Amino acid sequence: MFVAPGSGDTAVVAARRIGGAVQRNRARRILRAAWQQAAPQTDDTDVVLVAREAIVAATMQDLVAEMIELLQHAGFTRP
């Protein structure tokens, strides 16, 4: 995840090393869904979500928890 102050835009990227088209599309879908749950806790930020190989076995709850933790660590969440 890459985060920077901005207008609130979000991009999702999944490289070919994730797998075939089906796996890459699933990775993008699950990242978007997890971001929708984590996004209300953020200020106006631009975000690039990058799928890694471990996402194939990840659950939605794991991704949401990790996103919130990363945003808190970076200081991009509201109190």
3D structure, described in words:
With 79 residues, this protein is of the alpha+beta class. 42% of the residues lie in helices and 20% in strands. The chain is built from two helices and three strands, in the order E-E-H-E-H. It has helices at residues 21-38, 60-74, and strands at 2-5, 10-14, 45-51. It has a three-stranded mixed β-sheet, with helices on one face.
Shape: globular
The portion of residues forming beta strands comes to 15-25%
| Alpha carbon gap, first and last residue | 21 Å
Q: How would you state the average pLDDT, rounded? A: 85
Which structural class best describes the helix and strand composition?
Answer: alpha+beta
Order of helices and strands: EEHEH
Task: Outline the low-pLDDT stretches.
Answer: none
**Biggest sheet architecture:** 3 strands, mixed
- Number of strand elements: 3
Describe the strand arrangement of the main beta sheet, using strand numbers: 1-3-2
Helix content: 40-55%
| Rg, alpha carbons | 12 Å
Q: With helices defined by DSSP (H or I, 4 residues minimum), what is the helix count?
A: 2
